[in-house]
Every structure is written in structure tokens, then in C-alpha cells.
Automatic annotation (TrEMBL):
One of its GO terms (cellular component) is proteasome storage granule. This is 26S proteasome regulatory subunit RPN2. It holds the Pfam family HEAT_2. Residues 831-900 are annotated as: Disordered. Residues 778-891 form the 26S proteasome regulatory subunit RPN2 C-terminal domain. SUPFAM superfamilies: ARM repeat (SSF48371). PANTHER family: 26S PROTEASOME NON-ATPASE REGULATORY SUBUNIT, 26S PROTEASOME NON-ATPASE REGULATORY SUBUNIT 1. Residues 875-888 have a biased composition (Polar residues). Keywords: Proteasome, Repeat.
Amino acid sequence: MPVATVTTSAAGSLALLKDDDRDVRVYALEYLLSIVPQFWAEISEELPYIESLADPQVSELPAEARPLAALLCSKVFFYLGERDEAVEFALRASAAFEKEPYGEFKETIIAGCVDRAIADTNAGNKVDSRLEEIVDGVIRQGSSDGAKLAIGLALSLRRLNLIEAIYLQSTAPSEASSSKAVERKSADGILHDEGLLRYILAETIGGAGGSDAWPDSFRRDLLALLLKLFQRTTPSDYNSITQIWVQLGDAAAAGAGIVDLMNKGGDRGRLEAYQIAFDVTDMAPQSFLETLRTKVAESGWGPDGTSGTEEERTNLEEILNGSRIAELSINFLKKHNQTDMSILKVTKDSLEDRYSIYHSAITFTNAYAHCGTTSDRFLRENLDWLGRASNWAKFSATAALGLIHRGSYINGVRVVRPYLPGGAAPSKFSEGGALFALGLIYTGRKEGAEAELRKGLSDVNDPIVQHGAALGLGVSALATGDEDIYDELKAILFQDNATSSEAAGYAMGLVMLGQPSERVLDELIAYAGETQHEKIVRGVAIGTALIMYGKRTAADSVIDKFTKSNDAILRYGGMFVYALAYVGTGDNKVIKQLLHFAVSDVNDDVRRAAVIALGFVLFRNHTQVPRIVQLLAESYNPHVRHGATLALGISCAGTGLEAAIDMLEPMTRDPVDFVRQGAYIALAMILIQQTEAQTPKVKEIRELFAKVVTDKHEDPMARFGASLAQGIIDAGGRNMTISLATRAGTPDMKAIVGMVLFVQFWYWFPLAHFLGLTFQPTTIIAVDDKLRIPKVDFVSWAKPSKFDYPSTAKPVVEKKKEKVNAAVLSTTAKQQARLKSKKAEQGEAMDTDDKPEASSSKTEAKDKESKPTEAPQAIVSNMSRITPQQLPYVTGPFDPSSVASASKSADAAVSTEALAPPKKGRYLPIRGVGDADAFQADKAAAGRARVGWSGKILLVSDTKPDAEGEYIELDATLWPRGVQEEPAAPAAPEPVAAPSAAAAAAAGLNWDGAIPAAFEYEFED
């Protein structure tokens, strides 16, 4: 019987490798490959010799056997833990490696090949053809197992051809929903998985992430490829296509797309064109919109064109110039204003207005709380308080009108007319504030305000007025790149006045936002090195950062100049160049640099700015921010801790992120006042529009704000922050949120700019008004093809309390003083005790006996009553509040008659029982909202995955256009038709005596009531 042999050593086979016969050497290699897992340590002693056998220049092995030697080297290096060498020899092994069965060795080598290919791609080196073969095989395998994995790898390798191939090999998943109203077709007859394209688009818009920062050329090529692939399917996904047009800055293509849809005629084409126009208006910069409007007008669809009907041309123009969305938003905000006036009253009564810091705090709180509502009720009811404003507090108080009336393009000039230069108010502070207010009203829309602002900039030779005019002109001409306005602002800058030139520096950055040119950068950087005014240097530094918005690696040269400067203010500006150039990218290299400056710079302001900048860079990855800034929040340096609070607030705004709240709560008890200030503001940003059902701590934190504001022993800086927090958390009448991104996921330029300038309030309080640019109305407004607002309902598949408005604060009731008992002598007490004991012995009830509780039976009865159960859903009327967190639960619209509800209020109807599945109504959305088959909250998220709409305005198709319909009427006083946006200046009015507070309150809340008198009061010192 033969005995099985057991190999106990590789020495024999290694000896055969040196045999004179080449066939024996080949046999030895094959055998060593089979035993290498057991004897790799012994084989490694002969590794140099085996490497020489794999060398193509050595002829000791036949050419076909050299890959075996390379494979043996690769396996030995694998077991030695030398992955790079193992990969190198595996590539030399070529065909021999491909024949290897899948296992730990092959998977490790493939992973190493992929990593090397990605590293070479990121470094700009040519990828080895052998690496490409292996990676292509991985991608082909991945596309069959999971297309997203293959797409991710192709993105990392920047292989556009592979991305296209993977998409064309995919097939669209079967739609479970039966709500598809339009049959879709593809150019090749196969419906492909457009979810892959949307995944790529989300990655492209959000940045490549980490150290894999894509060059601009690849990004543009990728977007162009996505555009081509999206257009293969009809009807196309215009929601995604619109985002691509904006990202590419291709206004001409967007205009051509809108014109093409309008020319096609019919409800579908017109509705799609209107929807694109609304979406573009929501996410594109002003320069893009101006070019788009020009292209549309050249095609005959402008106001004076001949295409279509006059109504269609007018509607399209009003959408593209932003007036229609502003009209709808301002009506929504006024109609649903839920501002708790008792909070403002308590804050005003608690903060002594004779101090400028407290007067400004109340001003900002009111401006935030009433942003966009046009409600000046608080001002009318507190004219005495308003009259005590002095100097820059008066400037801020007047500028607050700009936030209150934000977006009121028709009435904007009329609102601030009494305070403009030449009006009834002689104060330079109120005149400058009025010009700033005018710019805030017309944010991102210079038509209607430009003439007045340029007049205030040039005609009035006063630095205070010029300060307000410059800020107003900058914010109204946001991102226009207007050279004429830039030159006017430059003239103000070169006056070298600390007040006006600082504002000019900010304004120049606002006008040239994201549009750097060598001339502009050279002028600003050179002047920053010449002036002796720190305020001007700071204005120029932040202005330069604004110019580099979104430029990524193109901003590196400016960053290098600023961060290596000996001037701490320029290094401070360099941190914001990082923040704006790489906003939302999450770039690892940038994060590393910011962390370095946060802990190593010798200047506290620079360190604070570096930490704040982290919030901007990481706002798309907000869940990572608490972990990154955790140690910074515990720093010994209070400036670093303050920066950590704002970084959390900026990145996690509106999310209610529990980790961020848990980190900020202890910081509200920090021993340093401005750290507590930052914690209050950050908590308000995070908890805006959060309910107790979502975030239980929101009630406790609201009470904390009130406690700090009313505590007269608290530090002024902390009270200032708590006051601002009260306005932020209730912004826009509790109908606005804070977000640095649009609903489509694209970075919101206005919001980002507003947040950057808001954090400069550390140096200059009036800049706190810029926070209003970050506020966004939270609503869905369904409109038909005539831009009317039909009375339809949406279903929110969540309990009403989960997203309801917070309850009104209970008024503080003063405790009544208890009556003090008169002193009683001991002898009298003893005598009374003897009398009581005698009565007790006689069986009489004493007066001091406890009486039986009369209400005990009532209490038991109440306990027996069954408590009403809360409905599992809510019916939300058109043009009502729908928060971003609520949106995934929302479906519709449906006809009110098709929705079974027990009761209905002005804002929402709630049934005590589950709703029957609603049927399709008269109005069908042009883009899907939720899933009509999702009748439980747990299905809502799946329905949301197929949503093709991401804006505030939703176009709906009327299936019964000839039938009469019910529509929501808009407030004509807010947007009177036929009135010019900039009426001719009336004659200077006669000075008006200040009315009493009661008389002013009686005037009502409408804009056409008695305009508050100009600030012609006797001010207290």
C-alpha cells in the first residue's frame, strides 16, 4: 500500500529552481506556487533570485514561464505584508494572475490595483495599461453585481467612457407606483436607470468629497455627459437638466430649452417651461438670469415679443425676473405669520434700550422674527422705544425695514421713502440705514433699487450714508459682475474713509461674487497692503473671499498670499477664502489646513475664523462636524470655542442634529460670555422649525433663551446672543428655515454669502442683517398654467404634532403678595388652644379641621374620560407651511372633496381616524410629489425617492380647464398690479409729529396704513 507523502520543507523545490534544465525550473516554480501559503517564510529567503527569474532580460526561464516567477514573487510579498510590491509583480504576472482563483490574495491585489489607479489619476499621471485592464474587469463585474459600486469606481478613475457604458447597460427598475401619467421613451428603446445619473449629479454638485477633488475640466465634461444622457429619454428629467444648466453656467442652453417647450405649445410644454423657469430663478445667480432673459426675449418670448399670447409672455417674464415667486412667498409669509408677540414684548421690556447693544439686539430679533412678513406691528406699537435709537442703533433700526419687507419689489421704495436722503428724516444714520434696507428688499435684483442706491452713493458726500448705500448696492447687485457699479464702489474705497471704504470692500465682493479677474484681484490685494485702516483691510479681505466663491483650486494662489501674510487681518480673510472657495466640498486637504490654523496661528481672530470656516466647507457632511470640532469645543482658547459653536450652527442649521445639540448645551454654561453668545445663536440655527416631537430639548432651550434675556445679572454679550437666538428660531413668522443649499441640493449662493457676512457682526453689528439672506420660506405652492393658486390639499403622512407650529409662550403671571399674619402673644395662643381642646371634647368640629375635597369626584370623572387619539396624518392646504423634514411625508395634491377629514382649519385639517386612500384629483402635478400609494409614514420615504421636484413652486395640470374652479386670492395691497416697482419720487412731505403708540397700533398692519414717522425724536444719551 503506497504511503502518502507530506511536504515538510520547500528546500528541495528551491534547489530545483537552480537546476540546469529549464523544464525542471518551470516544474519547481509550479510546485512552489502550490505550497507558498505554508512555506512563504522559507521561500522568501530566495526572493532576490526568484525576482531575477521574472526579469524579462534574463533567459534562465522560457518567456511563457516568467509570469509564474512574477506570480510567486507577488504571493511571497503578499504574505510579507508588502502590498505595493505584491501589486507590482502581480501586474508583471499578467495572464498567470488572471487565472488565479478568487480568494484573499486576488482580492487584495485587485484592491491595490484600484487604489494605485485612483492615486495616479488624482496625481495627474497616466494610468498603466495593465492597471486599466484589471480595473476595467472589476468595473464590468461590478456593473452586473451593483451598478452604483461600478459608477463610484469609474468616477474615482474619471473614466467618462465607462460611466456611459455602465448607464447604457442598466435597465430602469419596475415602477411600483401606478401614478405615472406620461409614458416614457428612450432613444435606443430601452429605459435605463436614471437613478444612476442622479446619483452622479448629486456627487458632482456636492463635490467629489475628501481628497478626490475633481479638476474643473473633468467636472464640466462629466456634467456635459450627464446632460447628453438625460436628454436620451423623453419626456426628459428637466429637474436634473435644469441643475446641470445652472452648474455649467449655460444660460443660452437653458433659454433654448424654455423657448423650445413654449413653442411646442399645449399644457405639458407650457407647464414644463414655467417649472424650469421657477427652478432656475430659485437656484441661479443674477448674471445667469439676465443672460437667460435676454435669450428668451430674442426668441420672441419677451414682454415685447410676438410669440404666444400676451398672457404667456407676461407670465414667463414675471417668473424669470423673480417677481412672481416673490409675490407668492410674501403672501404666504404674511397670511401664515405666527410670530409670538409676547416674546418680543418681554425681550423689549427686559433689555434696557438706553444701551446701544440692547437696542440693536431687539432690532435684529424683530427683523428676523418678521422677515418677509411685511408686518411692522412691533414698530408701530413701540414708537417710544424706536425713538430712543441713536447713531448706529438708528442705522440698524431703519435697515431692519429691509428684512421685514424683503422681496416686496412693488412697495419697497415706498416703504423706505420717508427715510431716504431728501425725505422727512434729517438724520444721516436713518438715511444710510434706509439705503441699506432698500438693498435688502431687492436682494439679488438691482432693478427697482439701483438708481436710488447709486444716487445715495455719489450725490451725498457723507460716509455714513455712503456706508448704507454701498452695502445696499452690493446686496442688490449680487453676482451681477457689473463693471460700472464696481468702479463706483472702487472710487468710494479709494477715499480711504474707515466707515465708507469698509462697506465698499464688502460691496465690491458682492457685486463680483464668484467672478474673479486678474485686474480686480490685483486692485483689492494691493490696496489692502497700502491702507492703514484695519476696518478697510477687513472689508477688502472678505470682499476678496467673496470673489473667489466656488473657485476651488483656482483660489489657491489667493489663499497662499493671504495665509502667508504677516498681517493677521489678511490671514483672517484667508480663512474665509478657504470657506467660500471650497464651500460644501468637504475637501480633506482644506479641512487639514483649517485645523492647522485653528490650533497654531498666533492671532485669536484667525483661529476663530478657521474653525468657523469648517462649518462652510462641511455643511454637506454636517453629521461629521460634531466629531471634527469636538476637541476644539473643549479648547482652552475661548475664541476657538466660539468658532466651534458657529461651525456647528452653520453646518447643522435646520437639521436638529442631536450630536450638535449635546455638544452645544454645556457651552451655554461656558464661563466666557461670547462663547455662550455663540452657543445660543448656534442652537437657534439648529433648532429652527424643530418641534418637541422631533427634538424634545427644543422647549427647554427656548426657555433658556428667555431666562438669559430676562436675567439682569447676565453679561450683555450673552443676553445679546440669546435675544438674536429668539428671533432666529422663529424666523419669518415661524415659516422660514435656514439652509445653505437649495431644495435641489445646489449651494444657495445668497444664503452662503449672507452667512459669511453675518458672522462679521463680531466687528460690526449692522452686518447681522445679512442673516436674513439665509432664511427660506418653507411651503409648497401649487399653481396652474395661468399661475393661479387652486384650492387643493396635500396629505402629510405623519402625526400633526410632529410638524406643527410651537405653542404660544404663556404670559408670566406676577405672584400676588401673601398677607403677613400679625404677631400673636404666647399667652393668647395658649388661651386659644385651651378653648379648642374644650370644643373637641364636646364633639364639635374645630375650625381648623380639613374640609373634604369637593373636586375629588370631578377628578375621577375626568380620569375616566377617554383621551382623543391623534390622527396619523394631517391634511395641509395649498400655500401652507411644509418644513423640509416634513416634505418626505407629503403626497398630493388632491381635491379637498376626495380627502376624508373630520375637521378643517385655515392651515391644516386633521382627522381623528386614518384617511382613506385619496384619489387623483382635478389637478395633476407636472413633477411627482411623494407616492400616491404611500398611505403610511413608513412608505413615504420610498415614495420620496422617485420625486422629480425640488422647488417651492409646483406646476399642476388642470384636467378640467373649462370647468369653474376655486382659487386662493392674493392680498392686492401686498402686490398691487399696474404699479411700477420704482415710482417717481414724490415731493418731500411735511414733517409729521410722532403719533402715540396706541394711535399707531390702531393704524393696522397693512403697508398702506400710516407709515411710521421718521426718527425725529428727542434721543436719550
